[in-house]
Amino acid sequence: MATTHSIAGGGNLRLHVREWGNAAGIPILFIHGWSGNHLVWRYQYESPLADEFRLVALDLRGHGMSDAPQEAQHYCDAQLWADDIAAIIEELNLDRPILVGWSYGGFVIGDYLRAYGHSAISGVNYVGGGVIFNESVLSTLFGPGFLRHVEGATQPDLPTNIEAMRQFVRELVASPMTEEDFEYALAFNMIVPAEVRAALLAREIDSDDVLLDMKVPVLVTQGEEDQHVLPAMAEHILRVCPTATASWYEAVAHMPFMESPERFNTELAEFAHGAQ
């Protein structure tokens, strides 16, 4: 059974947050990606991880059950994203959590660490996580699973939007999703307004300063077949971040936590224990 919270994040925007598991366990804060929500982590919070760890997942601003104003200023300020994570850690009294950032969640971790430093966390797990986003790296760090569909996904025309997201979701994985997983993923992607998706991509991001100054252990979890955030992004993190180690997933694309959940959960548990 999940406990739900409504937390005031940056600019007083209300964030929907859920938690499961062992309230006395090591806290793990899951941060989903572009156009997702907390449901992407159901193979984690419905797993034995919940017997041992305190599992917390938010809906990012503009996503899921969090407030979703459509004006771009709510999404283009790095400090707002940083304040969101800080508010959750403080409000829920998370004792040095592991931050798990999937895809766009990696950018949010960079925002948080730049503003608040490392003292309140014990480790970072980048899962197909992004750390750089600008025009010059679109062809080298991002792949066709993202680039082919981003224009349609940011259009308010509903037929265009739906078709783009259908293809976007299908290409998140190397092998076809189950019907149930696809239905879940398409549904929670479609509730994110096109204007919000566009606003998230309107800013330029470079977290190399954060990576260079990293003081906590970092696990880079990367699918070798990822066509959204390319393996080159993981290789970049490993070059720049002195505390980073990698776990490469063969025949897995952008969702190792869904495509190979038992291995993912085992490695996350080991990482969480080792980071304490």
Question: Can you tell me about this structure?
Answer:
- There is one protein chain.
- With 276 residues, the protein is α/β, with parallel strands linked by helices.
- The protein is built from 14 helices and ten strands.
- An eight-stranded mixed sheet has the order 1-2-4-3-5-6-9-10, sandwiched between helices.
- A hairpin with a 5-residue loop joins β1 (3-8) and β2 (14-21).
- The protein is globular.
- The mean pLDDT is 97.
- Keywords: Hydrolase.
- Residues 28-265 form the AB hydrolase-1 domain.
- One of its GO terms (molecular function) is hydrolase activity.
- This is Alpha/beta fold hydrolase.
Helix and strand topology:
Blueprint: E1 3-8, E2 14-21, E3 27-31, H1 42-45, H2 49-52, E4 54-58, H3 78-91, E5 98-102, H4 104-116, E6 123-127, E7 132-133, H5 138-141, H6 144-147, H7 150-153, H8 158-170, H9 179-190, H10 194-200, E8 205-206, H11 208-212, E9 218-223, H12 231-240, E10 244-249, H13 256-259, H14 261-275
Parallel strand pairs: 3-4, 3-5, 5-6, 6-9, 9-10
Antiparallel strand pairs: 1-2, 2-4, 7-8
Helix pairs in contact: 3-4, 8-9
